[in-house]
Amino acid sequence: MAEKLYGYAGKILRVNLTTSKISVEPTDEALLKRYLGGTAYAARILWDRLPAGLDPLSPDNLFIVCTGPLTGTLIPCSGSVEFCFKSPLTGIFGETRAGGVFGPKVKFAGYDFIIVEGRAEKPVYLNIFDDEVEIRDASHIWGKTVHEATDIILDEIHNHNASVACIGPGGEKLVRYASIMVDYDRAAGRCGGGTVMGSKNLKAIAVDGDRDIVAADPDKFWETAMEGMKRVGKRRNTLGILGTIGGLAGLNEAGALPTKNFQTCYFEDAPKISGDELARKYLAKRRACFACPIGCGRYAGIPGGKYLTPLHEGSEYETAVMLGSEALVSDLEAIVRASYLCNTYGLDTISAGNVIAFAIEAFERGLITEEDTGGLKLRWGDPDVVLNLIDMIVQRRDIGDLLAEGVKRVAEKLNKDAADFACHGKGLEMPAHDSRGTGKSIAVQYAIGNPRGACHVHPSWTAMWDFSRNDMGLKEFGLPEPPKDRFQETGVNRGKAFKIIVSFGELAGILVICTQAIHGTAEENLNPTRLSALLSALTGWDITAKELLTVGERSYNLKRCFNVREGVSRKDDKLPRRQVEPLASGPTKGIKVENLEGMLDEVYEALGWDKKTGIPSREKLSELGLQDVAEIVWKKQP
Amino acid sequence: MAKALVADIDKCTGCRICELVCAYRHFKVMNPAKSRIHVVRMPHEPTDAPIFCIQCGLCIDACPFNALRRDLKTGAIIVDEDKCTGCGICVQVCPYGAATLNPDSKKSLICDLCGGDPECVKHCPENALLYVDVETAAAYKRRLTARLHRRHLSPYLPDVR
Q1: Residues in B touching A292 (Cβ below 8 Å)
Q2: What CA–CA distance (Å, rounded) separates A577 from B152?
Q3: B17 at A interface, C-beta within 8 A
Q4: Which of B10, B11, B13 should we substitute to test contact with A (largest number of A Cβ atoms within 10 Å)?
Q5: pLDDT 10s per residue in chain B (161 long)?
Q6: What ipTM was estimated for this complex?
């Protein structure tokens, strides 16, 4: 028996749905010391276990539920879970995060990870309570919405204290951007995690447990965690009161609100869909995830009228933009309804909104016709178009069948020009931040698209540096001053800033805590120094802040290598044409990305990546202890 | 004046920090199943409610082993762990579902008010938990009782799930 792993649960649950075999193995301590947990540990498993070129929808794909050392603990915002797999949307590394209480429950049940492989013959769900793990028939809930299925599962396992991660019809019908919905409304939306569950005939996982998480130094951990609670808790009065949607109006004023399928970054009707409007008219209360002193969740509904919507957690900023301004929809009631439908159908609101806005533009250009849509006229600013398309996508009806494949595949199918206004990176639909209006860090982040394509928060919101001018307590680790002009591209120490921020950002996914715990200002977040103090007291290992950042860097590079093995190289690190054309209106009118290649050169250099191929150099990989990985990614290279 | 623990449930966001803190201050572990306060989140309605022992004392009389007594200083029910056999009678009689058993030791878990300085109150980020003089507490309790007479929980009536 190995010595006790403080902070961790110490076990991994493996479930093979093909053979119905359930087994438990210890978490590998040596691997933990190099990767710490979460998405980094899972990336290593996926690197070791998945052959290159594997069809993500095949039974051989692995679906890994990840917790980290800090998940479920007393630190602020510890209620996170990450799901890792090869993405059916992008064909590269897939990771997607949700809040709620699912991650902590996995740990309280005694597991650091749950690894699901194979494919069940017919629909099933997992019911886990500590060591009792059962695979249950889900035939009767296949086809049900997330809200219906979650109700039924909690009822039939007789445990309303359990947490359920569930897919809706979106995942069942293999919509490539299907979400995994946790505790009804917390979404692990991106990369098609729900699609992978659907391909395995896995409707849901219900989990509860009553095991301890123990700190190596309980008093020190208490003290450090409570200091962190106070610190991050300061965000209650801003992010907590306003929600993520609270930022919408301000971003519009700054010319950074993606609108009309990214044609512009200014929406005249933004005040009508703002956080204030939501709070004033539709907010029933705020809801927080596990151990969160911020409480950014909006619990809202539409009490009557055409867009009658039951209470649910929404809408978030991303949702309001992607299903609102991107389609020029200014009716907040319709947006809240769309948010609810996506949640309960199990669709990613970001990808769905992006695809819908793209479809409307394609219709305008004559690339999609009424014949394709079953007579529906796809018009800008029509809320019913958005709501109808959500239904069509989830039922794969008419054009919905194609739109369910994601914007990259739709554009390929339509014609060559369609790619110009299909806004994605490596197949992942761009979210509600623009490469031009927001600041140029986001342009680089989307273009590199590591680890999961064009994403605004994985590994981090790098615009924190040049747009928000928030150093996140990273100055002591060498974060340079941001440029005075946020649109300046090269010669501003961009590479150095990017490297530090992504290494830090990876830590949220590795320790499996909410990104909001690290995204605050230096006065209100957990920076590497504080994370290292927490982790040392928790695990009893002596981990310095610098070592933590190295683990983040190792994770970032390993995931890049996973993607390189799938064929990604510098040629794929690009932006769609729309993102290098000037913005059409508003405060940022005329702004465009001028010199992406120049910025990439600087960033590759800082990351230690080969400028020609975009592959992490042998030297960098061996510095990070990834020699075996280097052997494989450099084998075919000159 | 004597004090009592009360909740202002409209403020609760359901973060469960109280559960973590309660278990940690008593057992130095992170495990909500060892908490003496439980947050109930109702799906489909705007309710997150911290449920805790109101120190009514029904369990004291019901305990067949005389393992429960009242702390005269705080009014809290105190479990004598040497006498407690884990029979579960206290859980059976508790009308609020507030009494539970420790999943490891099987001993009764009932709020002891932390000896007169409840940790959950100190760490609630929303100030939804209060430890106040009994007169103030009574006013809060009346509000909760009044709630029971309310006909509808919210204007969101139609079931369109």
Answers
A1: 13, 15
A2: 54
A3: yes
A4: B13
A5: 999 999 999 999 999 999 999 999 999 999 999 999 999 999 999 999 999 999 999 999 999 999 999 999 999 999 999 999 999 999 999 999 999 999 999 999 999 999 999 999 999 999 999 999 999 999 999 998 888 776 555 444 444 44
A6: 0.96
